[in-house]
Amino acid sequence: MADDGQRHVRVAVIGSGFGGLGAAVRLRRAGITDFVVLERAGAVGGTWRDNSYPGCACDVPSHLYSFSFAPNPEWPRNFSGQPHIRAYLERVADTFGLRPHLRLDCEVRALRWHAERLWWEIDTARGPLTADVVISATGPLSDPQIPDIPGLADFPGKVFHSARWDHDYDLRGKRVAMIGTGASAIQIVPAIQPQAERLTVFQRTPPWVMPRADRRISGVERWLHTKVPATRALRRQLLWGIRELQVSAFTKRPGELGLIEALAKAHMHKAVKDPALRARLTPDYRIGCKRILLSNSWYPALTRPNVDVVASGLREIRGNVLVASDGTETAADAIIFGTGFHVTDMPIARRVTGARGTTLAEEWKDGMAALRGTSAAGFPNFLTLIGPNTGLGNSSMILIIEAQLNYLVDFLHQLDVLGGRIALDARQSAVDAWTRTVQERMARTVWNTGGCDSWYLDANGRNTTVWPGTTSEFRRVTRQVDLAEYEVLRPPRPAPDGAPAGAGRTAAEEVAA
Prior knowledge:
Elements: E1 8-14, H1 18-29, E2 35-38, H2 47-50, H3 82-95, E3 102-103, E4 108-114, E5 119-124, E6 127-136, E7 158-161, E8 175-179, H4 185-192, E9 198-202, E10 209-210, H5 219-227, H6 229-251, H7 258-271, H8 275-281, E11 293-294, H9 298-302, E12 307-310, E13 314-318, E14 321-324, E15 329-331, E16 334-337, E17 352-353, H10 360-363, E18 382-384, H11 397-418, E19 423-426, H12 428-442, H13 446-449, H14 471-477, E20 486-489, H15 507-512
Parallel strand pairs: 1-2, 1-6, 2-3, 4-17, 6-18, 7-16, 8-9, 8-16, 9-12, 10-11
Antiparallel strand pairs: 4-5, 5-6, 13-14, 14-15, 19-20
Helix pairs in contact: 1-11, 5-6, 11-14
């Protein structure tokens, strides 16, 4: 308890998806038990709780899309579905004793840095609390984005986003419009096509789609992974190694991706015989510029007689008629938006007010930027998991999360080493230098040179989402905190010259002093 009777914890974690639960496990393993996990929903799981649409599954192999410290030898398929991933996260919460730390139905409404107390004041749906350190694990795929379409409010039918699926609405016999052709849409369309009377897919930009090498993992394999853990570890290592070898083509030599494009075209040609439809489905940008999608059922579904592909975005809605940018008109009973999330404008950023009296969203108005993807200048003791430029175009985000957890644990260790009531604030010069280096490397990647407009880019056209390197390199640069990159903050006290003691020193200088 704080001296005013308010609940105080050393660490507050926001979110209970992979990032939040991973942080909780690492805190406990580091001997830190004075923490809470604040979750706005009534259960853990993050994006794998929210996305329950038909056909929902991961596009990263299960044995790689899981924590290294919590292996699951019982994955049923190469690419497991949403129910199995959500169940895995529930088991992590149970196995590692995280339930006592969870505060469910506890949405964080606002956070404000208290400069004198050197802690965060947190307003939640279940009351206020304070914390020395805040870990934001809200993730980039947590808040759905629905475009502002003229006439949408007056549409007489059903409207919902893929991440807020209405399971009570029966699609059978309905005229359904699917807006978007991203990772969710290519799973939804094949799943609902047999039910809909008419299914119209609005496609602004066709995706590159590769075959999905999915299959059931046999009982023998699962037995072997359980009884001989080394086989499970080897499987994970092979999956990781293959993806690491692919990185250079995306980050340094996009011209080498031509062969992959040929394979993707062959995959489409095998299923789509109509030349006109094939032309609408063929991308005009380099493969990899947008996330490469995996599906064996997407193209066959689009060839069914009750499916139409409109090669244009949705422009407006007139009653129950949807009008595309090319003038195509389609009547619909239901609209499903597969239009992604607020990735480069994280909603949590509007709720966080830092040491300068400005919100994180205001500081990021020209683009997100954080030291090693974790620490933003002016926001002491505030760490972001899956922050700016930590995303991956071809591998498992769990690898990035675990690397950031190493950084998080060392950050807390450094606070202990420095001693007393203290905070670390990333120096603006360090954040700028890191961002400059990342963006210089980004300039030659396929995500910047591939000729597409993807969700990796912010409103200014800058790629603030993807990490332009391997996961092993990211693990290397986040192995430990470099104190020279931080300014140390101590409670203000009178000094001979009237300035607060310690102000302006780097953490490294503070240690030396």
